[in-house]
Amino acid sequence: MKRAIGLVSALLCLFVVSSAAAQFPGDLEGTLIVLNKSGNDASFIDLGSGEIIATLATGRGPHELVVTDDGRWAIATDYSGGNSLTVFDVENLVVTRTIDFSSYPRPHGILLLPGQEEVIVTSEASRTLVIVNFHLGEIVRTIETNQNGSHMVAVSADGTRAYTSNGGANSVSVIDVTNGQFVKAIAVPARPEAITTNKAGDEIWVGSNDDAVVSVIDPEDGSIISQWPGFDWPYRILLTDDERYAVMPDLNRNNLRFFDARSKRELGSIDLAGIRPEGVTLYPDDRTLLLSSAALDKVLVIDIESRAVLGEYDTGSAPDGIGYSQLVLRKTIERGRR
User: Is the dihedral of CA 174, 169, 247, 72 positive or negative?
Assistant: First the structure.
């Protein structure tokens, strides 16, 4: 009986995804920027109409993306063979520059630093964090992580502490960004990739692919505050801006798990039936999740509190990193055509 109920639930989920996702939600505005790994490009999607209003080239293998708070600039890491950053002027839908990272190969994780003039980027192949002024295209500072395979980065809200997930060393590096110094390495479960931190920087959330767990770690003593099993590839970890919820897509299990970030209690999950969920970002209401599907070449729209799939948008080939801009560019383009 339980097996039959499970089958019905799975089929119902498939029906909900396919029917709700047959159209995009009509009440969202702004521009979604999606990096397409196989296309070596970025799709700029008008959320109000669902239209891809521009496709701009990146370097080879774009993976991760950040967008400034004003929505004007987006910066992508070109990880698989690109060895560069691509800087987009979102308002004008152009690539303003490509920043050479050949001295710091395989740039992957990227976040904005306070002031939003600089980004901090992992160079996986050189065991380095690279701080870049993306407006000038200049490398400002480099900081060694002292660990192999530094893949993703998390930063405290004040920008003073950074943490890198080091898949080749089963560790997290703690970095003093202010003084440009490696502080220490914390041992974590095997092959960490996904990582984030709360705003205070006193919790490190890290997903470990080989040990199939997600852990919350105290950076002071390395102790495990909470830990959840049952993952396969916990691809990313996203905290809502108010730090009420944590959302974790599992790439191989094809599901999305939801947690109360304060109590550390699991709230539920959605079975997404073979979509290969990857990149995650938030709409400004802090409760609507935008999730890229590498298998379907789409972005799903999901309500965090109800755990309902609201709709979908078409993208380019193999979407991964995504970001949101509040700029409504379709209206600007239409005015320009008159």
Answer: positive
How far apart CA 118 and CA 140 sit, in angstroms, is 9
3-state secondary structure of 55: strand
CA distance 91 to 111: 20
Contacts of residue 123, Cβ cutoff 8 Å, sequence gap at least 6: 101, 104, 105, 106, 107, 108, 129, 130, 150
**Distant-in-sequence, close-in-space partners of 225: CB < 8 Å, separation ≥ 6:** 203, 216, 217, 218, 264
pLDDT tens, 126-180?
Answer: 999 999 999 999 999 999 999 999 999 999 999 999 999 999 999 999 999 999 9
At residue 97, what is the residue type?
R
End-to-end CA distance of the chain: give it in Å, rounded: 62
> Measured on CA atoms in the order 56, 61, 67, 68, is the torsion positive or negative?
negative
Taking CB atoms within 8 Å and a gap of at least 24, the contacts of 300-307 are: 300/17, 300/21, 300/272, 300/275, 301/24, 301/25, 301/28, 302/256, 302/270, 304/240, 304/245, 304/247, 304/258, 305/245, 307/256, 307/258, 307/267, 307/268, 307/269, 307/270
pLDDT tens for 187-239 read 999 999 999 999 999 999 999 999 999 999 999 999 999 999 999 999 999 99
Domain 2-337 has CATH 2.40.420.20: no
CB burial of residue 55 (10 Å; 0-12, 13-18, 19+): middle
pLDDT band at 26 (very low <50, low <70, confident <90, very high): confident
